Amino acid sequence: MEGNEFSKSKSNWLIERLQFLPLFYGGSEKLLKIIHETVNKKNINGEKGKIYVTFMVDENGYVRNPKVVNEVIETKDPEGLLAKEALRIVNLFPRMQPGFQVSRFVKVHYKVPIDFR
Questions:
Q1: Nearest CA to 26 among 86, 109, 97, 99?
Q2: Which of 2, 17, 41, 64 has the smallest CB count inside 10 Å?
Q3: What phi, psi does 103 have (nearest 5°)?
């Protein structure tokens, strides 16, 4: 083995284990900033709580099939305003860096909390 070359077995081992989760361009701080800037206070009518949304990041980095999976509501929210607003926000997410596994881009489930406090 010379220089930076790997044996075939080590190379195959790396390829099989090389994987990345989807990444939001700009990092998690940028994601939180976008969520904060996208919230429309008129849509939530003073309701407070935290909504967890799951979605698929497809092979091209686009958000698909967002769904509310958990709600921690501090106010009554009888009309489900927080869940509706959380889904609206997630549907507006820009393209992300897709997940990567075994030398190809893959679909990956992603979960994000949206705090309305």
A1: 97
A2: 2
A3: 60, 30
**DSSP letter string over the chain?**
--TT---HHHHHHHHHH-EE--B-TTHHHHHHHHHHHH--HHHHTT--EEEEEEEEE-TTS-EEEEEEEEEEESS--TT-HHHHHHHHHHHTPPP-BPEEETTEEE-EEEEEEEEE-
Q: Are 39 and 89 in contact (CB under 8 A)?
A: yes
On whether the pTM is more than 0.85, the answer is no
User: What architecture (CATH level 2) is domain 20-116?
Assistant: 2-Layer Sandwich (3.30)
List, for residues 21-67, the tens digit of each pLDDT value.
Answer: 888 899 989 999 999 999 999 999 999 999 999 999 999 999 999 99
